[in-house]
Specification:
Its EC number is 5.6.2.4. The protein is of the alpha/beta class. The strands form 6 sheets. A 7-stranded parallel β-sheet has the order 8-9-7-10-11-6-12, with helices on both faces. A 6-stranded parallel β-sheet has the order 13-23-22-14-21-20, with helices on both faces. It has 17 helices and 28 strands. Helix 3 crosses helix 7, helix 4 runs parallel beside helix 5 and helix 13 packs parallel to helix 14. The longest helix is centred in the C-terminal third of the chain and has 18 residues. The protein folds into 4 domains: 105 residues, GIY-YIG endonuclease (3-Layer(aba) Sandwich), CATH 3.40.1440.60; 179 residues, 3-Layer(aba) Sandwich (Rossmann fold), CATH 3.40.50.300; 178 residues, Rossmann fold (3-Layer(aba) Sandwich); 86 residues, 2-Layer Sandwich (Alpha-Beta Plaits). The structure holds adenosine-5'-triphosphate and zinc ion. Zinc ion (ZN) binds next to loops.
Length: 677
């Protein structure tokens, strides 16, 4: 590190850097160095910015700068000990920034471990030392490669043998052994190239341990790095570096692993590719799946998107031939078949504590047989709302267009949107009536009913509330796998990906609300969710059953679930989308604005709507968001559409510049390819 800042006599170069700031530009700094000794693009530099020391990413090294010399500052340090991020990584970050209309610095820097972005180098030094000591090549033989069935083998060979950019859609029914296909394809790629790296993504952190175990057993001695949000900063640094240095051959992670630096990346696997969790819902609202496809294209490597219920986007690409479809139509375990799905008509059998007589009987049968049951209810808390019979008072959140949810263990009312917490009132706040009642039911209330009904059963609830503590979700899933649970009740956390071997009954409670949502994606999502949760039953071969409690037994969506008929249902949805001019036949972006008063947000959106000429782009009128008020802010949105992606992109670029220049008082943000409208 040099400290000279009387520049003229010392030789120097200019570093063009980006910083994690909303300012949409790069910044020049001077760096004293001998010719031939300049830093490289892709290296990190510590600079002073807005009177703070911040880490910056060097995007170019220049011999001149347009910035007047008196305004130029010296960079404070360059992280020379860290190999630069590759030009291809920079290009990926740049593409993401441009596509999602965000400054490059806001995309690239948060993609790096926090410990790399601090002024001190202690953590980096320690991690580098630790990795240098790790011996990458302890040779051992892989254990327990099961013999693949024909469909699995064909799929694994197609993926493992592919060269160049080749996107596959691995469409395999639940329990068809997609994991095994990934692993054996990986084995082929790793065996072929002693440097090859593979990125495997899962939608949820809870799915990493099971897969991690499988990978370690299959590839002993090979370094595996995991990247997800529950790693400590020290671990994250170590794992990130292992990938960056090429030591980790397999990187397993959630959506944030998309931006891992992988110099020898040869294959990308996206498991449960339909899952909405691949889309980040705040800040840079990117789709890790879509960016992964871009990354594979850029590198000229194969990518596998796997699912029993592919997203309509991917299904559309498979139908048009852009993606190669690989089908697994049968379950992998001998004699395992898809569960029988039956609807229970809630109009006839109202039930007690939210459970129909038929459901209770089915649970009792499983208990007697010593088999596991799973109850799925996508609503956490005890009751979604409490109300007063006498005057009609109801537990509204004072800050949001939402109800305060009753959480019984803590005796609290909680808003799931702004986190407001209140004690449960003893009597009605408006009329004083002491008889205020919970309305509807969440997982806690169902759990309570179950405990009363089956005092002898071992009952476990898994949802965001029961798994708040670090490691508790893992412990809960482990106990299910060990057979220590008779009845599992949970939200979407339990619905996906898990390979529960002893489960023979899945009960689905109250899925109807999603049937009538305004969101055109709701039926796609509900169908996938039901197929996925149904798919947890009967994976190890025992006959199994799925019971759906509904008031709409005639609804075609349930018919499709009963027939396990993804293909026809997806075809129908795609036809509807084409006719209605919706994605994937249309490209969309959503401009959101929030303000203390709704008219201010709407007025901003109206100005935005009218501020540019927009041939070939449809700009709709601003409307309040369905949940208008959150945390005392009113929110509105403006949908922009085009049948041409490039046209939409070109418009958005110009539009963002115009909007930034407006310096509006409202808080606004743009989402490209929005999932929730
Ligand atoms: N060739 C095989 N022979 C025997 N068992 C197999 C074979 N392949 C996979 N299995 C087993 O089948 C079960 C289901 O496999 P896996 O979990 O990979 O299914 P999946 O396709 O990922 O399902 P989902 O979409 O529901 O996640 C696992 O217990 C796995 O060990
Ligand atoms: Zn609230």
């Amino acid at each position: 590190m040099s400290t000279s800042n009387q520049a003229p006599v010392t030789p120097h170069c200019f570093l063009e850097v980006v910083i994690d700031t909303p300012l949409n530009s790069s910044f020049d700094y001077r760096w004293p160095c001998q010719p031939g000794d300049e830093p490289l693009p892709g290296q990190l530099a510590l600079v002073s910015f807005a009177r703070r020391e911040v880490m910056a990413l060097i995007v170019a090294v220049k011999s001149t700068s347009d910035v007047p010399p008196e305004k130029l500052k010296d960079a404070l340090a360059v992280r020379g000990e860290l190999a630069p991020l590759s030009g291809r990584w920079l290009a990926l970050a740049r593409f993401a920034a441009e596509y999602y209309q965000r400054p490059l610095g806001e995309v690239a820097l948060p993609g790096l471990p926090k410990n790399l972005r601090v002024p001190k180098t202690v953590a980096l030094g320690r991690a580098l030392k630790k990795l240098a000591k790790l011996d990458a090549g302890q040779d051992s033989t892989a254990v327990g490669m099961p013999v693949l069935n024909t469909a699995q083998q064909e799929a694994a060979d197609a993926i493992g043998g592919a060269t160049g950019f080749k996107p596959f859609l691995l469409w395999g029914v639940t329990g068809s052994g997609k994991t095994e296909v990934y692993l054996q394809a990986c084995a082929q790629v790793l065996a072929r190239d002693p440097q090859a790296q593979i990125l495997i993504m899962v939608p949820e952190i809870n799915l990493t341990p099971q897969l991690e175990g499988n990978i370690r057993a299959r590839f002993p001695g090979m370094m595996l790095a995991t990247l997800h949000s529950s790693l400590s900063e020290g671990e994250r640094m170590l794992h990130w570096l292992a990938a960056h240095l090429g030591q980790a051959r397999i990187v397993l992670g959630t959506r944030l692993s998309l931006l891992a630096s992988l110099p020898h990346l040869q294959l990308i696997v996206i498991d449960e590719e339909h899952d909405p969790s691949y889309k980040q819902q705040e800040g840079l609202r990117y789709s890790a799946r879509d960016l992964a496809v871009w990354r594979a294209h850029q590198l000229g490597i194969p990518i596998v998107l796997g699912s029993a219920t592919p997203s309509l986007e991917s299904w559309h690409h498979a139908r048009s031939g852009r993606y190669t479809r690989l089908d697994l139509r049968e379950r992998a375990v001998q004699d395992a078949v898809l569960p029988r799905v039956r609807l229970i008509d809630m109009e006839r059998d109202r039930g007690r504590d939210g459970l129909t007589a038929e459901m209770v009987a089915a649970l009792r049968l499983r208990l007697e047989r010593g088999e596991q049951s799973l109850l799925f209810l996508n609503r956490r808390g005890y009751a979604p709302v409490i109300s007063c019979d006498a005057c009609g008072w109801i537990s509204d959140c004072t800050r949001c267009t939402a109800f305060m949810v009753l959480h019984k263990p803590e005796n609290r009312l909680r808003c799931h949107h702004c986190s407001l917490e209140l004690r449960i009132p003893r009597s009605c706040p408006t009329c004083g009536n002491v008889d205020i009642q919970p309305l509807g039911r969440g997982t806690q209330r169902v759990e309570e009913g179950l405990r009363a009904m089956f005092p002898e059963a071992r009952i476990l609830r898994i949802d965001a509330d029961s798994t708040r503590l670090k490691g508790s979700a893992q412990a809960a899933f482990d106990s299910v796998h060990r057979g220590e649970v008779d009845i599992l009740i949970g939200t979407q956390m339990v619905a996906k990906g898990h390979d529960f071997k002893k489960l023979t009954l899945v009960g689905i409670l109250n899925p109807d609300t999603a049937l009538f949502s305004q969101d055109y994606r709701a039926s796609e999502r509900l169908f996938a969710q039901l197929m996925q949760v149904a798919g947890r039953a009967g994976r190890a071969g025992a006959p199994s059953e799925v019971l759906v409690q509904t008031r709409y037994v005639q609804h075609p969506l349930y018919g499709a679930v009963m027939r396990h008929d993804y293909e026809r249902f997806a075809g129908q949805l795609l036809d509807e989308r084409r006719e209605a001019g919706l994605p994937p036949y249309m490209y969309q972006a959503l401009l959101r604005a929030e303000a203390r008063e709704l008219p201010i947000a709407i007025a901003f959106l109206e100005t935005a709507r009218d501020c540019l000429a927009h041939d070939g782009i449809l700009i709709n009128d601003p409307i309040p968001m369905t949940m208008t008020r959150v945390h005392n802010m009113d929110r509105a949105q403006l949908l922009v559409e085009s049948s041409s992606r490039p046209a939409l992109q070109a418009f958005l670029r110009e539009w963002m510049e115009a909007l930034r220049a407006m310096k509006a008082r409202v808080k606004w943000s743009l989402e490209v390819d929005p999932l929730d409208i």
